[in-house]
Design goal:
572 residues, alpha/beta, Chitobiase, domain 2, eight-stranded parallel beta sheet, 23 strands, globular, Hex-like_dom2, DUF4838 domain-containing protein, hydrolase
Length: 572
């Protein structure tokens, strides 16, 4: 579905109507550059009804050209392509021609989408929800001279919406994911992506060295904890001082890269144990921990050794590891190799607190930024124990992103509800996070504009009532400071939350909906209000719960939280 309720009637470029122009691509253009040309043709056509011709640069030059990607016209531009990386681009108007020229990997395609956003008003709010917000005539400036290289090299909004390949690319999410539950592939014609080699992108100890394969004969390969070595996954780690463990893991990583030569990153990272202190306490490991002042010491020495071996054969590959749970505190002595990424996990126990207000996060970022040239972030942006509960964290997203980039973050992974379409504001949060990763230096007014544009485009004419609800619950959470895994009543205390006023806002938003699509989206997001009404006091009966679960399932919602599916109703 394409929503173009305000189509542009005419586009002019340097005084000439756009319909006179030809789209030029290189004779040997890459698949993503050809996609860029085709996307430009499609969206210009949807904007004003002019279907532009496409031709290669073997055609004789015309004064009316939109030149896309690497062509034999590039000598017309005074630009340097060597600084663009894979994602950067130029936008230029020179005389009567428009040039969208960037990296042949993703940069040219991103340049096309940026041109469509900035100059033709296109917005891609969610999979299947796109429109131009411009109307009437649009005159492109006589002179455009813009260069853009994203500050964040690895961008992943790990929410359900971004597993739609086409939409993820439009929002410049450039990470590919291999995961048991969900995966994101980005084909070459859409620019490909930055992918992790190996069977998993995180928590790889047991993946590379399964307890089921090694523990029976070599329990000494696994962590000594409370005087014993545990052979249960999620309750143990590796003994990182054992030379055989280093040899086996190094060979596993090298074998993985031999099988996947295009992989850009390999994760060598601790398992996600329910025990936050599950690391090895053998004499050799403990000696390192004492020297370094942190269990991260044994992990980083281990990862550095693997990174050294990898660099000999694959000098561009990054080895990624976690600063998480017992490895969160940086070591005193050892520094990461230049081909090691430290992925800092920024768990915040309080919804209302920005990361810069939480010393454990701010100080860790500052220390790591002084000793590591490639910091990656694993950020948490939902309530993982209850996806449906209202989660008013919108005021934290912009300052948190600024803090990451100010501390040299080169990669950002924003984890949310990746398992299901949202019954809260998951689609809005995904859109804002993608915009922030692309332009983390945006102003507060730009951030507000993005939010309001989304609300209007996604929910229709009554959007401002939903904005009132968002602002109200955000004010409440700033007063009450609930935990990030809070219950409905903890997040919105009954003495502060006016249920009847909230219902009125949602009623008015729905009454103004202009079509069944916006009405359905309003009703689905409103489930968070019904959720509070039913579960804030903990007294919902079986029939009420079943009715709620049936509504959720009818809207396509499949996950209650990270570990539980929406149950089948029993009484409906």
């Amino acid at each position: 579905m394409t929503e173009t309720s305000c189509p542009i009637s005419k586009i002019t470029l340097s005084g000439e109507e756009i319909s006179k122009y030809i789209l030029i691509h290189g004779e040997r253009c890459t698949p993503s550059e050809m996609t860029a040309v085709q996307e430009l043709q499609t969206y210009i056509g949807q904007s004003c009804g002019a279907k532009l011709s496409i031709a290669s640069d073997t055609m004789a030059a015309s004064p009316y050209e939109i030149v896309v990607g690497t062509t034999n016209r590039r000598q017309d531009l005074d630009v340097s392509y060597t600084t663009l990386g894979d994602d950067g681009f130029y936008l230029q108007v020179k005389e009567s021609k428009l040039y969208i020229a960037g990296s042949p990997v993703r940069g040219t395609l991103y340049g096309v989408y940026t041109f469509l956003e900035d100059y033709l008003g296109w917005r891609w709010f969610a999979p299947g929800v796109e429109r131009t917000i411009f109307s009437g005539d649009v005159a492109l400036p006589d002179s455009i001279d813009a260069k853009f290289i994203p500050a964040v090299e690895y961008r992943d909004a790990y929410w359900y919406s971004t597993f739609n390949e086409n939409w993820a690319v439009k929002l410049k999410v450039n990470s590919t994911i291999k995961n048991r539950e969900c995966s994101r592939s980005i084909r070459e014609e859409w620019g490909g992506g930055i992918g992790y080699g190996g069977p998993s992108f995180v928590h790889t100890f047991n993946v590379f060295m399964p307890i089921s394969e090694y523990f029976a004969e070599h329990p000494e390969y696994y962590a000594l904890h409370d005087g014993r070595r545990n052979g249960e996954h999620l309750y143990t780690q590796l003994c990182l001082s054992h030379p055989d463990v280093l040899r086996i893991m190094t060979n596993k990583v090298l074998n993985c890269l031999e099988e996947e030569p295009d992989a850009g990153i390999v994760s060598v990272s601790q398992d996600d144990s329910y025990l936050s202190d599950s690391y090895c306490r053998c004499d050799a490991c403990e000696r390192i921990h004492q020297e370094e002042g942190s269990p991260m010491g044994s992990l980083l020495r281990f990862v550095n050794a693997i990174a050294d071996a990898v660099k000999e054969h694959y000098p561009k590959v990054i080895i990624d590891t976690l600063a998480y749970q017992h490895t969160f505190t940086p070591p005193k002595i050892t520094k990461p190799r230049d081909n090691v990424a430290i992925r800092i996990c920024t768990y915040s126990p309080v919804i209302s607190r920005m990361h810069e207000e939480q010393p454990h996060i701010k100080e860790s970022l500052e220390i790591w930024s002084n000793i590591c040239s490639r910091i990656y972030i694993w950020d948490y942006t939902t309530n993982f124990s209850d996806y449906m509960v209202t989660f008013p964290n919108f005021h934290t997203l912009l300052p948190n992103m600024r803090l990451f980039v100010a501390n040299n973050a080169k990669g950002i992974f924003e984890q949310g509800n990746y398992q299901s379409i949202s019954g809260e504001f998951g689609e809005l949060r995904t859109y804002l996070l993608a915009q922030l990763m692309w332009k983390p230096d945006m102003t507060e007014s730009d951030y507000e504009r993005h939010m309001n544009e989304f609300l209007q485009g996604y929910y229709g004419p009554g959007w401002h009532f939903i904005r009132q609800f968002i602002d109200d619950v955000q004010d409440i959470v700033l007063q009450s400071e609930p935990g990030a895994r809070g219950t409905p009543a903890e997040i919105l205390p009954p003495d502060l939350f006016d249920l009847e006023q909230a219902k009125s806002w949602w009623d008015q938003a729905e009454a103004l909906s202009c079509n069944e699509h916006t009405r359905e989206r309003i009703r689905r997001s409103r489930l968070q209000l019904l959720h509070w009404e039913l579960f804030a006091d903990g007294h919902a009966d079986d029939a009420e719960r079943d009715h709620y679960y049936k509504m959720a399932r009818d809207f396509g919602i499949t996950a209650l939280n990270e570990g539980a599916a929406v149950p089948e109703p029993k009484t409906c």
